[in-house]
Give the backbone structure.
Amino acid sequence: MLRFLNLTLGGIGTGAVYAAVALALVLIWRSTRIVNFAQGGMMMISTFVAWSVIGRTGSFWLGLAAALLAGLILGAVVERLVIRPVESAPALNAVIVTLGLLVFLQALAGIIWGGEPRSFPPAFGIVGFKIGDTRLLFSPSDLFAVLAVLGLMILLGLLFQRTSIGLQMRAAAFAPEISRVLGVRVGRTLTLGWALAALVGALAGVLVAPASFVSPNAFDEILVFGFTAAVLGGLDSPPGAVVGGLILGLLLSYLAGYAGSDVVTLGALAILVAVLLIRPNGLFARPAGRRI
Amino acid sequence: MTSHRLNSTLLRHLLLGSIAVAAVLLLSTVLDPYRNLQLTNVAYLVCAAAGLSLLTGLSGQISLGQGALMAVGAYLTALMLADGDSGIPLPVVLLAATIGTALVGVLVGAAAARLRGPYLAGATLAFAIGLPALADYRGLAATLGGQNGLVVFSPGPPPGFTDVPFDRWQLAVSTIAAVITLILLANLMHSRFGRSWRALRDDEVAAQLAGLPVARLQVTAFVVSAACAGLGGALLAFATGLAAPGAFGLSLSLQLLAVVVLGGLGTIPGAVYGSFLLVFLPTWSASLATRLDLSRDVYANLPLAIYGAVLVFVMLVFPAGLQGGISRLVNKMR
């Protein structure tokens, strides 16, 4: 029973990070219909910025702020410089641009920070909470990760549902031409969408870095799991991304705990294929009509 | 009239192919072994890339999992050549690996035919990550050699050619296999299948209304591309003497996709240039880094940085790939 509880808590911890990565991908997919394979690279750059700031100042919170700021700026710059020109091109060109960007960012990080993995300090202790005499495999640091992702999601929900900018962003994603006619600056909302998505990714990077360390390729696997989570939930649905992330985190945690860690990647593949064969557009997709 | 044209197309492809094989074989006598190895790498990449180009450029399906299909071909080859002298002739081994991978392609293609766009990309991405992990799976690690992979005992040149150095023999086999693949693909692209795939890519609903069996055509395209990837993987195993999971990571699948889009989707010359770029660009930028005497971190990463920047740049400047850019220039000059 304790084992099950530990695996569940661990699954929620990693699931929260997958959910954040999935959310970053979904925000970009909704606004620009692009799957951002460079997300892992952008996360990695902002996490390295945090690592440098923490190294200089010794403050985790300054590092986190620097990462979020770096994410915002990087997202906006990437959208303006390389994504804007391919938005009207065939879908595959955007895929290749983001892949090229991923390779470029990883090489750039290697040039600036070197190739070896760097350890990253956690925000809080990593020794598990104690209930009675038993120590859980869930630490204050894990709790912080879950709460931080949850808090960010609530803020994003408020932004999209309650503010004028959020409404404009949803309108621009839903019907760009009509929104433009109605006076929405569609170009700006797209840039803002990318910046926000990169901010969510930056948070995920800082949260996962104590476990994965920081190196140019550190986040490849997390990007794949985040993408799997986003596809599970349906790429158009932010709540779907969150639920998909948590489901994937829990299932992979149980798989690793009960069946062994060598089946985790295969398990992710099996879960994804099984879900997609039953619901080809993800769990939370609304049925889409095909236009003739 | 039609049969005459068909014959002349086939003849033209055969002629071009024979010239290419002869040119590479002649060239291999003057190049050093390292260059020959690089050309061998180009040959097996061309096989896999041309298949992916057909899949994505003609039938309109994306696959981020071609590297995993190459792994299937490579492991099948390694298992068939496991004991130094298995007695199976090399062409039979390559053909069997190709057919075996095509069978895996039937399964993947049947699942893929239900999925579209990013969902297909997601499923094939998970396939690219998940399949090489099988080598490490407890039940199979003993057969597949775990992380270290399997050593491939590549058979040497046949009697009568035994004085040919091994690098030239490997290049000859890979080039001939690649050229045969390209000739077959070129003919397939000009056939009824090619036209049906194009119709399906341009408008799936219209193709269905016109009576085309959409799902069956999509699976066929996947099987053809899987067979090409399998042959590419078999040649890789034959050329490098090793089938290990590390060689078939996600980066291989992504590089193959980059090759076909860089060269120009659905074009065979595009797959060839793209493969050349993929193999030689890192070498050129590495020699540039040595000449400029840069630090170790820069030296190790500069090739990748240039490669990434070239990918982004070509997509922004030539949205139809290099082959598209070249045809546009040629049309302008006419």
Q: What stands out?
A: The mean pLDDT of chain A is 86.
